Amino acid sequence: MSDSDTVPFGYADIPEDEKVARVGAVFSSVAAKYDVMNDAMSGGMHRLWKDRFVRRVKPRAGEAVLDMAGGTGDIAFRMVARGASVTVADINQDMLDVGIERAVAKGLDDLVWSCQNAEALAFPDRFFDVYTIAFGIRNVTHIDRALAEAYRVLRHGGRFFCLEFSTTEWPGFREVYDAYSHHLVPKIGEAIAGDGDSYRYLVESIRRFPKMRDFEAMIGAAGFVSTRVEPIMGGLVAIHSGWKI
Asked: Does the pTM of the predicted model rise above 0.85?
C-alpha cells in the first residue's frame, strides 16, 4: 500500500477508506459524555473559547448559518440566541441525537439537524451566509475537500470560521500541556467516559493537525480571501477565518 493510500488516524496511518468508520466509532463511543469530558479536560475553558468564537462570527438575525461537525449543539445554541437561522450538520448521528435532546430540553425548536459528510455536503451551491466548524475539521479524512465544500456552499460575501486546537507557542507551556494531554487525558476519558482509547486518539489527532500558518494557507488555497488566524493561549486553540468574494 502506497503512502497516498493512507491517511492519519492519531499517530497511526490507516487505509483511507477506513477513516470515516473509525472516527465515527470514536464519536459514537464518547457522544453521551462528550460535553462533560470537554469540561473535565479544559477546566471549563472550552466554554470561554466557544463564546469568543461566536463573538468573532457575529451571527445576525436572518443569516443562514451552517454549523458543521456541530453535533451536540454547543456552537449552534449560541448562534441561534443571536437570531441566526442555524443548520447543525454532523457525520455522526449519535452526536446529533445528543444535540437534539439538549435542544428539546432548552425548548429550542427552530434548529435544523442534518447528518452530513463535510467532504460531500448535500446542500446547493451558495446556500449559506456563514460556515462554522469547531473542533471538527481535524477529524475529516481530506481537509482540503472539506474546505472546498465550505467554499462551495457559501454565498458571495459569505464568511468561514473554524475553531480548532493547534500547537501552543508559549515557552514551557507546550511541554506541560503535552505531558498533560498524553498522560492524563486518556485516564480522564477512561474514568468519565469509560473510553481512554478514544481520547488518546483525539489528543494524537491534535498533534498531527497542520500548524496554524499551514492551515491558514490551506484556507486560502480553497479560495478564501482576507484569511486570519487568532491564537488563543499561545496557539493551543486558534480561530481561523476567511471570506468568499
From this structure: yes
